[in-house]
Structure formats: structure tokens, C-alpha cells
Amino acid sequence: MGKVRVAIIxxxxxASSLVQGIYYYRNAKPGELIPGIxxxxxxxxxxxxxxxxxxxxxxxRKVGKDLAQAIYTYPNNTYKFCDVPKTNIKVIRGMTHDxxxxxxxxxxxxxxxxxxxxVRVLKETKTDVxxxxxxxxxxxxxxxxxxxxxxxxxxLVNCIPVFxxxxxxxxxxxxxxxxxxxxxxIKSQVGATILHRxxxxxxxxxGVKLLRTSQLNVGGNTDFLNMLxxxxxxxxxxxxxxxxxxxxxxxxxDENIYIGPSDYVAWLKDRKWAHMRMEGQTFGDVPLNIEIKxxxxxxxxxxxxxxxxxxxxxxxxxxxxxxxxxEPSSYFMKTPPVQFPDYIAREKTExxxxxxxxxxxxxx
Length: 364
Hints:
The chain is α/β, with parallel strands linked by helices. Helices cover 34% and strands 21% of the residues. The protein has twelve helices and 13 strands. The protein has helices at 13-24, 67-70, 118-124, 139-152, 168-177, 192-205, 222-226, 234-245, 298-318, 326-332, 342-356, 359-362; strands at residues 4-9, 41-42, 45-46, 50-57, 91-93, 129-132, 155-158, 180-183, 209-219, 257-264, 271-281, 287-297, 323-324. The strands form three sheets. The protein has a seven-stranded parallel sheet with strand order 5-4-1-6-7-8-13, with helices on both faces. A four-stranded mixed sheet has the order 10-9-11-12. Helix 4 links the parallel strand 6 and strand 7. The longest helix has 21 residues, at 298-318. It is globular.
């Protein structure tokens, strides 16, 4: 097997956790149970087979720095669990478009100079997979980058709630050029969305009718700061709400559900507090209520899932699959092209890996 060559758009906390994880787990033993990792080897590709090719950002403090420095540069504030050695990969100047909202523009100054030739860089670095970590609400910027990715001939893992893989138009665009896309909006390993979905499934399976539910999230990273601008929050609310309501066979009504980021608390840094409440009706129409609080470091919580999504995208490339890749998208993403209950999505993804992985992985 060769390597999986990966470029990252947006060198924020999520990129920091992903890059740290690639180095932290690069010598992990296959078959060993390791916290934070679902597949040490996936389809024949070990985590150590992931090679970084390019980092793209617009922040003056990050552009021009080695990627190993940029991932620890303010305003990044996630958990540092690995000392990443110098990569000899300089962060290049990307396109802004709508990637810099009102609140982020208060703390981020754009790097001077023109936007790099993204197509040329992706081709010259022989990038296989591009990971999109732009800020929530970067609709036009994401679509601009997707055009560059299509022209450069790379696969895309879309980790944000700008809807690409879930849309017929973009599915056809990727299919027409023979490239795969996995998306949209990454689920964390054990995050608020997956926990909420599991609880909804529990209600369904045990015959409890869900009447009302809420999920209130607060955090102190730039994602939460960015989403104080409510106009940028629309797609995130759609994505998180749809991930839960897609499991129900009845309409709760808009007034009976609220799911989404709620506020920014600077001292939390990259920690997130998710407060969930579910009100149900059980035997004899008797009330049943659940309240739960989840606390996580937000970015490391999603990085292990992204590592698997990257390798599934490479398997799709290897096997000449194109368009929106249904199985891994359904398990790894909040808004995939097709929603399945998580246990079905997991089974479909494992079958995808077995089917398209190489012979080496099938012996493990």
C-alpha cells in the first residue's frame, strides 16, 4: 500500500488535533485496543500512512509558518497532547470569501499577499484527500475550494455544515469527474449529536414517545465565537437538528425541539458543555424525562473520526468510486446523503471497508 496524502483547509483547533493525532498514533500496534481510535488499520492503511502535504489558512499569524508551529498558534486553544516535529510544510495563503465573519475578524488579521494557486499546489504535492475545516457559515468559500479540489483531482472530506456531499448537484459534479466526496459536518467520537441520537434510538426501541427535546451547547473556541453571528449558525442548526429528527417517524413540531450552539464562554477554551433534555411519554401516558450534561474537549473528540473518514476517502479513490460515498458519510457525518440509524450506518461502513480494503487488511 502507498500513503494517503492529505491537505487541510483551515488550520484551527480541529486541524491541530488531527495533525497531533497523526503523529501521536503513527506507531500504534495494529489490533491493539487504543483509546480514541476506531481503526488503527483501515482497509490496509495504518494511521502512520497518512502524510500531510499542505496547510491552507488566511490568518497572518499562521501563513508562512511551519504547519507544526501553526497548529499551536493563537487563537488555537485546544488540548496539546503531542509535540509535533517540524514538518517542512509551510502554511499557504488561502481564499477568504465569507470565511471570516464579524466576530472572527475582531481577532484575526488576514495575511498580506495574493491567494495561492490552490490547484497547482494540490497537484504538485500529489494530494489525495483534502479536508475542509473552514469556519461554520463559510458557504461561498467552501464552494470556491470545492471547485479547486475538483480541478486538482482530489477527494474531499467535508467536515463542516456547508452542504456538499448531501446535495445532488455536488454529487453529480464529483461523479462527472470520477472523484469521491464524504460529508457533511463531522460527528465527534462521543459528542452531543451521537449521544442525542443514541438516546432517541433508545426511546424508539423501548416504546417511549419523545415529546420535546433540547440540546444547548457552549464552548470557548473560535467555532463558538464565530457562531455568535447568528446568520452563520443556520446551517449548523439544520445539520444538528436533522441528525436527531431523522430518526423519528413523526414530526415533533418546531416549537418542541431546539438543538444548536447557544453561547461563547472564553475560559472554556476548546472545551464544550452540552446540556440535553428529553421529555417523553411512557406507559399509561406517564412522563419520563432525561437530563444529561456532556463535557468534552471539542476538537480531539472529532479528530479520530476524521482520520477514518480520510482513509475511507482514499479507499474510494483506490477503487474508482465517485460522487457522494454513502456508507462512511452516514456513519461519520451529521448530514450525510442518506440517514441511517447509527448501528446500521456502522455496519454499512464496516462492510464498505471490508469490500474495498486491500487483501492485507482482510487478513487482520
